[in-house]
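Researcher: Can you fold this with zinc ion in place?
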Amino acid sequence: VTVNSFIIHTKAGLYCQPGDFYLDPKRRVPCAVISHAHSDHAVPGSAEIFCTSATRSFMLERFTGRAHSEFNLVEFRKSFSIRNVKITFYPAGHMLGSAQVLMEYGGEKYLYTGDFKIQHDDSCEPFEFVPCDHLITETTFANPSYIHPDPKAAIDSILSENQNVVIGAYAIGKAQRITQLLTYHSPESEVYIHPDLVKYHRIYGDHGFGLGNWQEYRRMKFKSGTRGFYIIPPSHFTRYSRDKNVLKVFATGWKRSYYSCDRVLPVSDHADWNDLISLIKNTGAKRVYTVHGKGDELKNYYEGGDIEVKILC
Ligand SMILES: [Zn+2]
């Protein structure tokens, strides 16, 4: 399966033939267009990288000391070209700096969403619908049983706790969104951040997305029982499994957490089923290609209609 021979799926990732570049390559390549800073989309070492300024900040923080790349910073809605392919970034609403990549070539519009979400999120640039002919979308939650709840309700459920709450959250994106939700909905709450997260929280602030009143985590405060919310990356979350009198939640869109916890905190940074249907409708795409996840349900849903869904990888 190829996207109109314009994009082909290779071992290194999605390759745009006329532009001779890769979209979110899985290994170092000569030229990479990178949608966002998560490790399954951004790997170090490509010679030339096109990405947003925030994505570069995260990459430099994560990959310090590794092979140098030449970064070309891309601003949202400002077009540029690689060879004869015209490219424009639009916000994907997934995390700070996350971009959808619109590619125009031979009179056709190709949109790669990267990871995206439509749900409201004040910790990053809001998602925009972009008209296209060919849509390449993630399908992480492409199942009708996945309808993500309002994150406010999820946050309310832990704000009503009288005990300490330890919140496991992925270090880039999720941890900052949870921080913003807590400090916005409950400014009087004590919100503590694990030291490993501070550098990423600062990048948010540097790019104009202040996350409210948070403090670096103090283990002593936790031990002394000061009521608060402790945001911890997955690598440290399991250490809290034996702490008593503390509620342990893990922030995820999945119904169950991979990490042991009392319950999940249902906050997702990916589109749910309704968002995917809305995306397809609002972009007007007649050809849809799925990546990252299972596209079968989406394919079945549109079977026999005038929208063709193909599973790309
Ligand atoms: Zn992501």
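Model: Folded with zinc ion in place. The mean pLDDT is 94.
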